[in-house]
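Quick start: load a record and inspect it. Here is Lysophospholipid acyltransferase family protein:
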Amino acid sequence: MDYLIYLILKSVIYAGSVLPFWVLHGLSNFLYWNVYYVFDYRKKVVRSNLKNSFPEKTEGELKAIEKKFYKHLCDIMVESLKSFTISEKEIKKRHKFINPEVAQKYIDEGYNISFIAPHYNNWEWFIMSLNFIKEPVNPKVLVMYAVLKNPYMEKLIKKSRSRMGTIMFPKAETMRQIVNYKNEQHFLCFAADQAPHNPYNSYWMEFLGQETAVFFGAEKLTKAKGYIPIYMRAQKKARSYYEIELEVITDKPQATEHGYITEKFMKLLENDLHKEPAYWLWSHKRWKKKKPADFEEKRNSVSQD
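Running the structure step on this input writes:
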């Protein structure tokens, strides 16, 4: 049954993926109407997140951000669909780095880089466009992912995300892959703003005025392996057009104090959200876990450094 569902979905996905963007944007408009007005997809989560994050904003301002978020979310859906067949020329044009020299400096000096990105604007296209940041010889792009329950769908999605040369692997294989490519210059990519599963194996800080558990793996690996951590800031210039700005978090990661890289990343994201809040993944249950009362007592038994 899983394989039959896979064949059907594959046919539908590829049929939709070859459609031009103007048709896909029409589909996005249709999706928005249904997602927002008919199915009320995660509205309670979105409204709670926005209200708690921006208590200074009026109901009207929050409503405008909410609607803009849902319109953008539907654009992301059709852009993800387009990812299955989008060309190299198209991805370079639509997901464009405006200051690649920031990364080129460290590439030329022989460093590996950890690119740390939030779920902001089109995060899916990062793993494609990074393959072209320094041509004709680009460092390997390594991306970890969460394994899907359906092996056929996992194969399909992995194939899509690997089309431009990206090397995809399950999170459990991260250290093995780093060892495999230790003699080849590479990028290691993180989406570091997701809510961690284990509250004890997290970094806790104030983010958007709320006590927040933050994924610590990006800092942990960056410091352990001496990567140069770079924040990727995406700005939406038009529908399905993005400009990517790079900002170095630190050029001496191993000399930083515990939590510095994590806090700097989250503060950069926070600053971006205050400027343009609608393009973050507000439907995610970011604050569903609270800091355990015995966190300080037990944190020393959990490896974070």
